[in-house]
Each structure stands twice: as structure tokens, then as C-alpha cells.
């Protein structure tokens, strides 16, 4: 019988599934008792260089499209290529050095998301980009994200290992392990990467077909039903990794928003005046943008508080540990832990958080005041926990950082308004600290998941994040200033939709025009879900995100469910076929995510050089819209078929495997 990937892996270093213990979770790729080069000068230098590149590319792409690209996997792939070249001249690098590189690189991407979604909004309030202020706010928010994640690491990453898959973190670990082993996993990742890379080049580089397929229709007297999806390889891969259950919750939230709430609002005459004469699809999108986002924000506020309440035991334990270490009674215990369980000392967390809180109040370039600083720190702690939990469910690409910023704006604006504050910039800066902290915490948790599976030292990764965040923050203001001078933030080239929304909401709350009714609807809906024992946050994310993101994630979850069901009917008693499918599917999905992410960087580089047209395709073929839609459907079917075939190909017990045996 031919060996499947999981069997080969077990022979080399042990399959992750096979290595899982009943209580201790998976054994790491690098054992805790083994010393391997990790936080080296070489890894830091490469990580810093890639950090600036990812920061620049993601700030541009985020302001242009409203979404950033998770940098962990492409950074890991690029790092492996660099170390492979260095190895040819006798230098090389370890798998844990690769992990440090991707950890530092992704810090730039995460910080970029928080900056462009909030700080960039000052331009919509007719304020200039202040480079020094941007750097200070970015550093303070980014460090809060790392520090507040430390006491939660054990609970979210280790204790909740089975419940929270952290799709990008898991996929990144698979990428690094496959590259380290050099076995069939490399072929699987390469296959997924090439399929995704070519797919997105044809779609985004040449406009050969559309990845977004959507429609709106009427049913009886009720107008405004809208459904569709941006069927990209990365989103389908994320759905496959998180599985059908969580993907179903996200899609369920999307259906509530787009098949129930939006039609009701359209029928009730709530279409914004700007879209009154537009198409049905445009009306649905306008209603979602004007009202439904607030419903999702309300649900996330309640879901966030409930998540914190659910974690109260962990938080109390973490605070107790912090207090003990501050009194110097727990420092020795930290060093006595296994290498793979050593975090930065809790006294660093406590002292660092206090210093940051003081800086928010005292540093003149921040100017949020005593109340604003207090709100920023408390909200950051809340949404760091929410963000770290959410990315474990739906992945970093779907992390609703802007939703958390909206929630902070609502809370901060109400509180500050009661004290006589009328400047929306103060509210925006307060929200910026929280948004940056939440974005960084989501990225940090994904990186720590990767490290947990690989056997990295958490403390080294946390230090790498701090270094990466500091560099990113120093460059963020300059990059933001450059793009504003070159294109104008809010222009057709870089519309920066989230930043504009944040500025609008800040003014709206201070002037009394915010959609409080919609926020209350979301909050009540979340309470009902809690009483039904249904996960609130995945549903809230589904409501808040465009349906075009929830649908492809659901398709990936369906594909995972279908393959699991197929193999369960044909599996042997030892579960060989199921292990085979699980291992291959996760690795191919990692390749799909990697290919799209790197292609996004390529397209971003072409944008920066001025190559492209109004639709964003550098080399368009000039096909008509209907033709692009039809070809998009064909491409999607081909993508799903290739994905499924690659997972099941040469599986033990299949015809292909039997042919190999013969």
C-alpha cells in the first residue's frame, strides 16, 4: 500500500493528528526540550525588511479596496525562499527562524489595517496627516495589542486548541513544516499556490473573469433580496480550514442581514437618497452600508462583553499571576516552565499597560485626555480578547477590526460628549488606539498559534512582534502622508471607505445623528442568540461583513463537510483515509491562501508603479461584463473541482492508490 502524506509525516516527525494527546494537545514539530536557533540577528534583519514592504503594500491596498491581506503565509513562503538561497552559500536557517520572520513581517500588515481604517479618517475631517502623532498612536496601540494578548495566550491558543482552529496560523504552520520536510507537502502547497496565483492573475491582473458573482431579486411585494459572493481561492481555503459548522454560523448571520433585514428596510422606505434611483443590488448595498453595519456592531458589542464574561476565570487567573510576578514571587516559576510555555513576564504586561495609559493622557501629540485614555485602554483590553477569539474562528482576513472601531467610537463619543467634547478627531484617535490594538492582537494570536504547532518560544515571538510593531509605527505616518500627497485619501484611486465611515460616525454621534435603533436591534439579537446557546460572534461577523465574504467562506466549509462525509463512508477502522484527507486538504488550502496573498502584493506593486485601469486590472483583456460573469462561474467550478481532486488524489483505498500499488 502506498503511503499517504499523514503516514510519511508520522515517519519523519509525527503526524499532527497522531501526535495529539488526550489532554496536552498536539506535540510541537520542534520538541520543547530541543534547542533550535530562533530569534537571531539574521531572522530579525529579514523580518524587518519584509515588514516595511508588507506595511506599504497593505496600506495602499486597504485604502483602495477596503481590505488588507494577511501577511503571515506569504512572509513564510518568501522567507523560505530567502533562507533556501542563503543555504546555497552555507548560511541557511531553521524552521523557527522562518517563524520569527513571518511573525515580524505580519506585524506590519496588522498595524497597517488599524492605521488606515481609523487614523486616515482625519483627512475626511479636513485635518492633515501628522506623521509624529500617527507614529505615537500606532506604537501605543500596537504594544497594547501584544501585551494584552499575553495573559490570554494559554487559554485561547492551548486550552481552546480544538475549538479555535486559527486558519491562517494553522495553514502557516503547515507551510513551514512542509518546506522544512521537503516531502509531498511541498508539492501540495505548490499546487495550491500555483492554482490560486494563476486564478487571481487572470481575475485581477487581466480581468479575464469576475470573482464576484452576485444578484438581487424580488419576491412578491417585498423587494431587495440580494445574494452573492467574492469567490476567491483564499476565502474558500479559509472556509475549508474552519469547517462547515463555524462557516455556517458566519453565513447564517449574512443571510439574516441580506435576506431578512435589508428587504424589510427597503420595503419600509429606508433606502438612502443617494441610492433611491439605483439598481436593486446597489440599493441593498447602500442599506447595508447605512444601517446593517450598525446592527452588526451592536451584536459584536454584546458578543464581546459575553466573550469576556466567558473568559472571566482565565482573566482573573492571569491578573493573579501578574500580581504575583510583580511582587517577584512568580518570576522563578516562569523560567521553570517548558520552553514552549514561556511568555514575556506578566510584570512587563502590567507595567507596560500602565505606562501606555499614562502616555495616552500625557503625550501632547495624542490629546485624548484622561477620559479618552481610560476608554482606550479598557476598550483595547475588551476588543483584544474579542479579536483574538474571532480570528481563531473566521481567520484574520475576515477579522472585523472596523466593527470594533465603530463600537469604540460609539462608546467614546457618548462618554466624551457628556463632558463637552465636540471635536470628532479626539474620538477618532481614541478609536485608533483600540483598532490598532485589536488588529495587532488578531495577528499576534495567529502567529502564536503557528508557534504553538511548530514548538516556538512564545516569548521570542512576542519580542519579535514588539520589534516589528515599533518599526512599522515609525514608517506608518510617512507612508500615509506619501499616499495622501500622491493620490489624496478619499479620492477615486484610494477612497479609504472605512476611514470615511469612521469620520462620519464620529461626527454623527457627537451631533446626535447615529443609528442607535439599529445598534439596539443588533444588541437584542445577540442576547437572543446567547439564550439559544448559539455562538454570537460568528453570527455578528456574518451580519457585519458583506455577504460577498460570508458566501465563499461557507462554500469552503461545505466543501470540507462534503469531503469529510465522502471519506467517512469509505474509511477503514484505523481512520487512514480521514487522516489523509484532513492533512492534504489543510495543506492545499494553505497553498490557496498563499497564492492569492502574494498575487495581491504583485497587484499592489503594479498599482504603486501606476500600471492599471479604472477597474484595477493592470492588463485587461477587454471582455464584456456578461462574458466575465459566465467565465467566473466556470472558473469557480474548476477551482472547486481541482481543490477536491487534490485532496482525494492517491488517497488510501481509492482507485488511484490501488493503481499505484499494482
Structure description:
By secondary structure, the chain is mostly helical. The chain has helices at 5-12, 16-19, 41-65, 72-88, 95-118, 131-149, 153-159, 167-181, 184-205, 233-267, 280-310, 312-326, 331-336, 346-362, 369-394, 401-418, 424-454, 458-486, 497-511, 516-531, 536-544, 547-570, 576-608, 625-648, 655-661, and strands spanning 212-219, 222-230. The protein contains 25 helices and 2 strands. A two-stranded antiparallel sheet has the order 1-2. α9 runs parallel beside α23 (576-608), α17 packs across α18 (458-486) and α17 packs across α19 (497-511).
Number of β-strand runs: 2
Strand content: under 5%
* Helix content percent band: over 70%
Going across the biggest sheet, name each strand in turn: 1-2
What spatial form do the alpha-carbon principal axes imply? Answer: globular
For the largest beta-sheet, the strand count, sense and barrel status come to: 2 strands, antiparallel
Order of helices and strands: HHHHHHHHHEEHHHHHHHHHHHHHHHH
> Low-confidence segments, ≥5 residues, pLDDT <50?
1-23, 653-662
Per DSSP, the total helix count is 25
Q: Report the C-alpha radius of gyration, rounded.
A: 24 Å
Provide the residue-averaged pLDDT: 79
Q: What is the SS-derived class?
A: mainly alpha
End-to-end C-alpha gap? 9 Å
